Amino acid sequence: MNDFISLVYPRICTCCGKSLWKGEVVICTLCEYHLPKTWYHLEHDNPVSRIFWGRAPVENATAYLHFNKGNKVQHLIHHLKYRERKDVGVWLGSHYGSYLKSSPLFRSAEVIVPVPLHRKKQRTRGFNQSEQFGIGLASSMKILLDTRSLYRSRISETQTRKTRYKRWENVSGIFGVRDPEKLAGRHLLLVDDVITTGATLEACVHALSSIPDVRISVATIATTRN
């Protein structure tokens, strides 16, 4: 039956577009091997963590992959965000979680917190891509996923083509925290899809910092900084 379904709806790699072999999921073995991994989860001082220095109280920060225009990672993100391939986000989270749970910098994380969409935007899109990444991470790291505590109070404009200051201005003060006492004293892993200037994540960190004795680290699918 699976072979028949594959003839009608062929399973293809989201990176190269070639057919997937039995046992391959989301991307083919060759593309998976050549994914541009950052290995930042092994370094406290890395280009992603430096984004937050002097701006937000982030304990550690990392990204799974390097994002460059036209590369395999752009294809993955495009399928996730615009073709409703939620399985891409879960797959990426599951794979990166296996690295993070072995990292001295991230293995103490207790709760995954995805960057939220506004409820109206999520209803329109149908899902939150950062949440899908978080689902994979939580499953692989065997820790909690919290999609309720951090919320977005209003819809913001797209961050595309905005300057660093305009990006910060666009998201400043739009995030809040429900029942902060439930996360008091815990190590949170804040997750998003792509980090560019870090403005959105910075705004989320400032909101989460209101929680007593909280520790905050950050992980994203990709970074535009090499």
Please identify, by name, the CATH architecture.
Answer: 3-Layer(aba) Sandwich
Could you estimate the helical fraction of the residues in percent? 25-40%
Number of helices: 9
Could you tell me the CATH topology label: Rossmann fold
- What is the N-to-C order of secondary-structure elements (H for helix, E for strand)? HHHEHHEHHEEHEEHE
Overall mean pLDDT: 89
Q: How big a fraction of the residues is strand?
A: 15-25%
Q: pLDDT under 50 segments (min length 5)?
A: 4-8
CATH top level label: Alpha Beta
Q: Number of folding domains? A: 1
- Let me know the largest β-sheet: 5 strands, parallel
Features of the shown structure:
single chain, 226 residues, alpha/beta, Rossmann fold, five-stranded parallel sheet
What would your notes on this structure say?
The protein is α/β, with parallel strands linked by helices and 226 residues long. The protein has one domain (37-223): 3-Layer(aba) Sandwich (Rossmann fold), CATH 3.40.50.2020. It is built from 9 helices and 7 strands. It has helices at residues 2-8, 29-33, 47-51, 72-82, 86-100, 119-125, 129-141, 164-171, 199-208; strands at residues 61-66, 111-114, 144-145, 150-152, 175-177, 187-195, 215-223. The strands form 2 sheets. The chain has a 5-stranded parallel beta sheet, with helices on both faces. The protein has a two-stranded antiparallel sheet with strand order 4-5. Helix 9 (199-208) links the parallel strand 6 and strand 7 (215-223). The longest helix has 15 residues, at 86-100. Mean pLDDT is 89; it is low at 4-8.
